[in-house]
Amino acid sequence: MNLHEFQAKEILGRYGVPVPQGKVAESVAAAERAARGLPGNRFAVKAQVHAGGRGRAGGIKLVDSAAEVGRTAEELLGLALVTKQTGPEGRRVDRVYVEETVEAERVLYLAVLVERRLGKVALLGAEQGGEDIEERAAANPSIIKSLAVDLDGGAKTSAFQAFAKSLKLAGKLEKKAVDLFEALIKAFVEVDASLIEINPLAVTKSGDLIALDVKMVLDDNAMFRHPDLKGLHDKDELDPVEMKAQANEINYVRMDGNIGVVVNGAGLALATHDMLTDAGGKPANFMDIRTTATSLDIAGGFDLLLDNPNVEVVLVNVHGGGLQRCDTIAEGIGISLKRNRRSLPIVLRFAGNNADYGRTLLRNYGIAFIDAADMGDAIEKAVGNVKKEAA
């Protein structure tokens, strides 16, 4: 779950991470009132959309009065802001964040994420932050420093001190940096985040470290532990197709290919995508059917493939387990096809619990499918049928 900047800063503020004072506003009048309640006479007006590159796209503006804050809010509210991460359609700006400005002597990059290769949390940093950090890191990966931390968030103070020094933070700044690292990792673990990124992190003339911009992503699968955070979900920012999939107990991401993919289990789905791509195929979606999905849920997920005009062939690659059997998925496919007029070639690989029964169910529904012996055979037949359709 992606959070808006103002939401992420509110959370980090509770953990003692220094952030500028600011208020969110959904109208011009509210934006002006927010500015009048903030210290200083220079303000940042920031479009709140789930996308990076807002500054380059004109979504962040610095102004010198509350009246200018209002005029800037009027320009931004309702605008479809186009950044490098939104696509050409952009994202509608429904709220702005009005914030006091902070004068920085220099800015850093700081992030916490899960290092899957090590099974640990990783603290990342660069001594020079900014919106071009990705391009600079791609050209010179050594600018990103990394420190692995145990999953409980623990690390020796000396390790944090050395990490601070690698970012050219010494003396009093080193101590403040260590406190910041510890607070950031504590927040990351306790709210079940998958990413917290501070870019830029300002070093001020007075010797403070202040998070000027924050990106935070929470793990959707852990939200049952955080009922207080569920309400932070901005449904207006979500893809309606993916929202429908979520409601049907399916993890789903739209892609630009022509092979619809039905898989249970994220690992199997990723392996299926890799094999499809290696064979010259193009997946139209990522799909992970959760173990909690019913046959009606699965039917809703299959409907999404039939609704996608780019899908030419459907590849069903399922390994039935104790909680999600092949026959349940077969029932879902049958329900979907009975209520949809569109039919597509289906390449089917069923293995595991009730695989044979699942095939029998599909035949009893009168559904034609191309049976595959294994994953390799299924991939070959799916890609081959796309080429046949093209011919």
Describe the structure.
The protein is built from 13 helices and 18 strands. It is α+β, with helices and mostly antiparallel strands and 391 residues long. It folds into three domains: 1-19 and 104-238, D-amino Acid Aminotransferase, Chain A, domain 1 (2-Layer Sandwich), CATH 3.30.470.20; 21-101, ATP-grasp fold, A domain (Dna Ligase, domain 1), CATH 3.30.1490; 240-390, Rossmann fold. Strands 7, 8, 9, 10, 11 and 12 form a six-stranded antiparallel β-sheet that branches. Strands 1-6-2-3 form a four-stranded antiparallel β-sheet, with helices on one face. It has a four-stranded parallel β-sheet with strand order 14-16-17-18, with helices on both faces. α11 (326-339) links the parallel β16 and β17 (346-352). α10 (295-307) crosses α11 (326-339). It is elongated and about 75 Å long. The two termini are 42 Å apart. The mean pLDDT is 92.
Keywords, please?
single chain, about 400 residues, alpha+beta, Dna Ligase, domain 1, Rossmann fold, 3 domains, six-stranded antiparallel β-sheet, four-stranded antiparallel β-sheet
Overview in brief:
The protein is an alpha+beta fold.
Q: How are the elements arranged and paired?
A:
Elements lengths: L4 H10 L7 E4 L2 H9 L6 E5 L12 E4 L2 H11 L3 E2 L9 E2 L3 E5 L3 E12 L4 E7 L6 H7 L5 E5 L7 H10 L5 H19 L2 E12 L4 E3 L2 E5 L8 H4 L9 H8 L2 E5 L4 E5 L2 H13 L6 E5 L5 H13 L5 E8 L5 H14 L6 E7 L2 H10 L5 E2 L3 H16 L1
Parallel strand pairs: 14-16, 16-17, 17-18
Antiparallel strand pairs: 1-6, 2-3, 2-6, 4-5, 7-8, 7-10, 8-9, 10-11, 10-12, 13-15
